[in-house]
Design goal:
With 317 residues, the protein is of the alpha/beta class. Helix content is 27%, strand content 13%. It folds into two domains: 242 residues, Collagenase (Catalytic Domain) (3-Layer(aba) Sandwich); 56 residues, no CATH class. The longest helix is centred in the N-terminal third of the chain and has 16 residues. Bound molecules: zinc ion.
Length: 317
């Protein structure tokens, strides 16, 4: 089921906004309040790529290879955290943001992408805190808070409506809708989330939602993209998978005809529990390098000045 199908668009009046900019870098520790946990949870609201977008992304990779262009260096991605809260709910403390970024840097190290927090802002706004994907609240929140989308990663933490743990924008959307660029994360998905309020199993508090959503932000699809139909997620080293995994069903043969491999339930781009997620494939790591280097070239002084990349761009567009 497409996450968009589950979500309903609601128009609601915007509540008054109280915005507090935090300086220095991190918010102070604050007591966490119990979030309203919906009965059903969905790991991700990022929509599938359009046929045109995936063809374009494939053309980009073909052009990079034909120009023998590889992005081998390090790219530092500055993060601006926008911590949306409703009273005490959603007030993420410094230690959780730091733990999340440390985990991202370990997992993304093989791609050359390194994350560095440069700003943390707190914003009290109940409507934004519970906004639903694709609504006016999302646009309003991001337009008001997002900064420098070509030069950083804007991360919005809140409690997204519809039971979503998070959603992200793809890198090829940056050019046309820069104000919407970024990643939205449920505040209770961060590592070391306080557990006393949990009334049910909550297997999503090890920080894998950020790893997954930033995977989309770097141009990855779900492992089950397209189900059993080619080209799947456009990568050969991820098995065809009929649909998203739940829990951690390791050693489960793929249900797709002709697919002899197991379902990739330990892949960061599936929907498994956090504790189950363990790796990107080599081709996913390569695609992250390609997509960030090509579409998010302004993050890196070398790629932003590259005449070869300019040539590749002209050959694709
Ligand atoms: Zn996703």
């Amino acid at each position: 089921m497409n996450r968009r199908e589950f979500l309903t668009s609601t128009a609601c009046a915007c509540l008054a906004t109280a915005t507090a900019k935090v300086d220095p870098l991190f918010a102070e520790d604050a007591p966490a309040a119990a979030p309203a946990i919906p009965k059903r949870l969905y790991r991700c609201g990022t929509p599938p790529p359009t046929p045109a977008a995936r063809i374009q992304a494939t053309r980009v990779i073909t052009a990079l290879r034909s120009h023998r262009m590889n992005f081998r260096g390090k790219t530092v991605v500055p993060i601006r955290f926008h911590v949306i809260h409703d009273g005490q709910q959603g007030l993420l403390p410094d230690r959780q943001l730091k733990a999340q970024v440390a985990m991202l840097n370990t997992i993304y190290a093989p791609t050359g992408v390194e994350f560095k927090t440069i700003e943390v802002d707190l914003h009290e706004n109940a409507a934004w805190f519970r906004h639903e994907y694709g609504t006016d609240q999302e646009t309003e929140m991001k337009t008001a808070l997002g900064k420098d989308p070509s030069g950083c990663l804007n991360i919005y933490t809140c409690e997204p409506g519809g039971g979503l743990l998070g959603y992200a924008t793809f890198p090829w959307w940056l050019k046309d809708t820069p104000a919407l660029d970024g990643v939205v994360l449920h505040h209770a998905s961060f590592p070391n989330s306080p557990r006393p309020w949990v009334q049910q199993p909550w297997p999503f508090d090890l920080g894998m939602t950020a790893v997954h959503e930033i995977g989309h932000w770097c141009g990855l699809y779900h492992t089950f993209q397209g189900g059993c139909d080619a080209p799947g997620d456009d990568l050969e080293d991820t098995p065809f998978e009929m649909g998203p995994a739940a829990g951690c069903p390791i050693d489960q043969p793929s249900a797709c005809p002709g697919e002899s491999r197991f379902d990739p339930v330990e892949n960061y781009m599936d929907y498994s529990d956090d504790a189950c997620m363990k790796h990107f494939t080599p081709q996913q790591l390569q695609r992250i390098r390609d997509m960030v280097g090509y579409y998010r070239f302004e993050l890196n002084p070398q790629t932003s000045r590259s005449s070869l990349l300019e040539q590749v761009r002209k050959s694709v567009e």
